[in-house]
Design goal:
Two copies of one chain form a homodimer.
Chain A lengths: L6 E6 L9 H10 L4 E4 L6 H18 L2 E5 L2 H7 L3 E4 L6 H8 L4 E6 L2 H10 L3 E4 L16 H11 L4 E4 L7 H6 L4 E4 L1 H4 L4 H21 L3
Parallel strand pairs in A: 1-2, 1-8, 2-3, 3-4, 4-5, 5-6, 6-7, 7-8
Helix pairs in contact in A: 1-2, 1-9
């Protein structure tokens, strides 16, 4: 398990807020203390995506932040990303591992306990689980899982769980308290008036929730 | 230059003829003597595409045929394809080279002389040039280039030129005579009544056209 994979996890999405680019979002998240950045862009051409990934790789390396790439394993390999997040219809984990190597962080998205267990069995380094709460960011997201199922998954798997979907300043502590290793946010940062401040607050609330979990002996 | 990159080049496209899969098409093309197979599928998920690529890699390796992958560089890398064909908005050639290594065949699609020269300068191993003739196979194909511009490009670049777009049994000899190293076909094989026979005939006609070219001292 990568010791750095803990806490707030910011996914850049430049379509949510016109005028804010992947670079702007990542820069603000890093400035606000986030150390896990994922580049996600379903629409960009491979070439555009690659150039953005090059910039984000430099930016994250400078501060020692993890840099993960959504879906595009070739781009992750070429830019030397720390890992990827893949879905259920993307390349199988063993194929991705072959390309990225043993040290790469391979996260697999899951929306139910069965998929989470399968991802672990397939060799994933973390499970991205959700949507925990209702979200409008990802149109193809499935049914909301809720906190109870998140807690169940966190109990059931041995690899870190990255909770995702509708996570905001109001509920991020609950996500940490449910046992999630990370909380992935998109609009809570991207659409915030002050992205740096929002990042700081999300991280602080997550830590508060996680302390509660530790106090309960988990 | 890869000495095998010469002659008929069959691109599998399983949407053109319901019931004929990538595997069926490649098997027939190989049985008909084609030794350059490209897997192209713009719609398949990465996972589906990957499993098909694994099968085609085995099949082509068994007969010593070149196996090229359209667009998906990660899949090409994982399955050990001989190369890829990329477009103008895909990863830059140097990034693909980094991932696939010096021996990989990297083809770049171009639709004008300027793009062809750029591809050569960028380090491409071949230029995919066209559409030489009208085509309905690729909906986003640009304006028809015609044989004269193909001949011009073949003269202007030092790397092999793979002609593409509307190539059929009627015009493939002309393409070879214009100086193209390869002729890439899709529907001329995929939609043929007898795919094996069509492949044989296309290859024969190409060779006849190429002999004409050699006789002219090119």
């Amino acid at each position: 398990m990568n010791a750095q994979l803990k806490g707030l996890y910011v996914i850049t999405d430049q379509e949510l807020y016109p005028g804010r680019s992947h670079i702007d979002i990542a820069a603000a998240a890093i400035a606000g203390g986030c150390r896990i950045i994922q580049l996600r862009d379903k629409k960009a051409s491979d070439r555009q995506f690659y150039f953005t990934a090059c910039e984000l790789r430099d930016m994250t390396r400078r501060v020692g932040a993890l840099f993960l790439v959504n879906d595009r394993v070739d781009v992750a390999a070429v830019v030397g990303a720390d890992g990827v997040n893949i879905g259920q219809t993307d390349l199988p984990v063993d194929a991705v591992r072959k390309l990225l190597g043993d040290d790469a962080i391979i996260g697999v998205s899951a929306d139910c306990l069965e998929q989470a267990l399968e991802a672990q069995k397939a060799g994933a380094d973390y499970v991205g689980f959700g949507p925990v709460f209702p979200t409008t960011t990802k149109l193809d997201a499935g049914e909301v899982t809720g906190l109870d199922e998140l807690a169940l998954v966190c109990q059931a798997v041995d690899i870190p769980v990255v909770a995702i979907g509708g996570i905001s300043i109001e509920n991020i502590a609950l996500v940490a308290a449910a046992g999630a290793t990370c909380a992935a946010v998109v609009s809570a940062v991207v659409c915030a008036e002050d992205m740096v401040r929002a990042t700081e607050e999300l991280q602080r609330k997550f830590d508060e929730g996680a302390i509660g979990t530790i106090a309960k002996g988990r």
